[in-house]
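User: Can you fold this complex?
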Amino acid sequence: MRRMIPIWFFVGSLLTAYGVLILIAAIQSQYTDADANIAMSSLHLQFWWGAVMLVLGLFWSIRYSPWRKKKD
Amino acid sequence: MILNLRMLGMIFSSHTGLMALGPIDLTIIVLYFILVLGLGVYLRRFATTGNDFFMAGREMTAWIAGLSFISANLGSLEMMGYAAATYQYGILVAHAYWIAAVPAILFLALVMLPFYYICKTHSVPGYLRLRYGEGSRTVSAISFAIMTILMSGINMYSMAIIMKVILGWNIHFSIWVSSLTVGIYVMAGGLLSAIFNEVLQFVLIWLGCLAIPVAGLIETGGWTGLVHRINAALPGQDFTHLWHSLGSSTSNPMGVHWTGIVFGWGLAISFGYWTTDFLVVQRVMAAKDLRAAQLGTILGAFLKMMVPLIVIVPGMLALVVLPFKLVPETMAALPGVHTYNEALPLMLARYCGPGLLGLGITALIAGFMSGMAGNISAFATVWTYDIYQPLIRKTASDQHYLSMGRWCSLLGVFVSIGTAYLVMDFSSIIVYAQMLFGFFIVPMFATVILGMLWKRTTPAAGFWGLVAGILSACGLWLWVKIDPSALRYVAFSSDAKDMAENVYRSMWTLIVGVTVTVGVTFFTKPKPDSELQGLVYGLTPLPSTKALPIFYRPITWAAIVAAAFILLNIIFW
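Assistant: Here's the predicted assembly.
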């Protein structure tokens, strides 16, 4: 029977991609008025959220990578 | 790629939405759909038998079972419906997450789950067949199938509202694309696919919605600042205390007395939903062993306690930070107004810029999908094993039932699309959901709990108790519909709002169900003990956990969660 890839690998991969995209959006917002109508934009939530998601995503992707399991 | 996404945004967005999505937001949503469908296709190869498809092979760990258990409940109904209800009734709605959830979930984990698990049934109606016979199973299976389809309608409507309000997306486009996606991945991988996607959706829901309370609480000066602003904006009404204003039904926005909260919501609705609604119970029955099932359920209780942060707090923030008042659904046709059900999307639009908005919308779509997948996978199991097999085709191969499960998953999606428009007549989505639970789930709880804990309960009593419960719930609802003054009898107060009426009606339903079951029991013949092994307390050998280290025992974690539950109630009293 084939071994199933852990769900956490898929979660990690998606969060990594999302983290990168949100960080790009955060950088873009610095040069445009895209978040001019957003309340509390001074908090720069996009930066924080993007960074946290990227870190979480990388952790899960690497920790549960199916290739890493094979090496073990 | 970016250009194409921009065009997509132009096609499906219009200027009637609160804001338009940028290319990055659309990329985030598209990526989510690709992954969800990809997971379904990938998991199809692991769902080759009925046990794989309907019970996920019973191989889930406690973490996965627990996250899936709570994610199936954390649909868009939970998120939008309770945020809307919070806007109307204040923090009282947090009772839905605390007293109306935690005790019942812990009771399921410690008392009821061992029976479900040990008898190896595939569904709650399946348990009723073993305990009472075919009659009870058929009534509960049919009522459950109707309820799950109607609940799917709620999820679809909720999601379509999100898309309409925030993005101006066509309501039919939203419903069809998301529903078919759910249909395809559940059809491919069954419960396994639903569970995997629910874990993914749980993470996304939290990450996508958490930005609202974080930004909102900073804006209002923390929890204390929020409470002060609500009290200043709504003088004379108590929107910020959990129990303080429940001494009288006239002193709180919901128009409910504490007895309604404790016995109606905390006992009848809550125990009915959490212990007998197969949608959630199915997730933990898929755990690899009884201890994993119990620990997963207790984990679910803890996670449920945390949900008010992303649902109740945004609803309370909406009371003070939105520059306009929200109105009931019945006034939605008026120009320029926003309804209660739009509270959460409006808060999302307020705080989330590009990127985060795409994530937030993905979270809401994920909520819709997890809720709907829960309904569809539970419907497929109950239809196949509790309606189709006993009533239509008794003997067929496992592959035949597997195929039936796949196709009726898709059929369930189509039927539930047709029910999506029913919910539009209700002032709040959650009122509609509670009404359905009261009709179908509360009567089942009376039957299941008596059958599980009292071996004297007879098959005839189980059947008639169930039927009497359903009829009394429908009868009470109809009575108030025909004669609104009857509310003072049903809910003890003419001031009772829809939600208060629901909780009291559920309480009466439970009383009728229990009374009829007990009454009929004394006049009919019970089953012999030999037929109740593994089904009833006192006749079922329960595995002991005394040999395990203390932190491996479910009872330890249940005690920790119970302590946190009591503490929260004291803090927000």
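Confidence is low (pLDDT under 50) at residues 1-15 of chain B. The longest helix of chain B spans residues 171-209.
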